[in-house]
Amino acid sequence: MARTKEFDPDAALQSALELFWRRGYEATSMADLVEHLGIGRASIYATFGNKHELYLKALDRYGESRDALMLHELSQAGAALPAVRATVRRFAAEATDDARRRAGCFVTNTAAELAPHDTAAARLVELSWDHVETLMHSALVRAQAQGELAEDRDPRALARMLLVLMQGLRVVGKVSAEPGRVRDAAEQALTLLD
Asked: What's the CATH code of the domain at 110?
């Protein structure tokens, strides 16, 4: 007879996500995961696979939650351009908030730490960035159709610029103690939408 799991896999995955996000992939050992999750190594392997597979599952979970928030922000009825501005400003605020800035963005952290040599991680990073770009592009197309964005602006190029800006805000915010850098960069970029 099979034993029932003595832990909640969903809660364990969330806990692993938080540990990986805080420490990174390389700095998190299997022993760290066992201790942090409070479950045995064999249970981790049986439920999630090896450390790398668990990391990828955690990254996927992070992307789902972050993408859902952005989808909600950018798909509200009414004017689209204020939602785009608010999303960029939220990224800037999170990047300068002392309680959050040092953690950075899990996707951005993965892009810097693993993506250059890990094709599976790089694929998930690209999927996340594609989704962000698509959400921004859709909102900017809507803004243009509603007369909020000038006809001579390229919504795809603007969406790509905002994606790169938002990822850069996370990197600079993680290291810099000068919040003005991040806020000024975000506000300057937003003038391109005028």
From this structure: 1.10.357.10
Confidence (pLDDT) at 5 = 57
135 contacts 71 by C-beta, under 8 angstroms:
yes
Measure the CA–CA gap between 76 and 20, rounded to whole angstroms. 32
Could you report the per-residue pLDDT of 64-108, keeping only the tens digit for each? 888 788 999 999 999 999 999 999 999 999 999 887 777 888 999
**Is 99 within the bounds of a domain?**
yes
Tokens 């990828």 identify what position? Answer: 56
CA atoms of 58 and 73, how far apart (whole Å): 23
6 in helix, strand or coil? coil
Q: Where are the alpha helices (DSSP H) in the chain?
A: 9-23, 30-37, 41-48, 51-74, 81-96, 98-101, 106-113, 119-145, 155-175, 179-190
What 8-state DSSP symbol labels residue 191? G
pLDDT of residue 74: 94
Q: What integer pLDDT is reported at residue 64 of this predicted model?
A: 86
Confidence (pTM): 0.89
What domain range is 131 assigned to? 58-193
Judge whether residue 1 has pLDDT over 50: no
Q: With CA atoms as reference, report the closest residue to 18 among 43, 54, 53, 71.
A: 54
User: Identity (one letter) of the amino acid at 62?
Assistant: Y
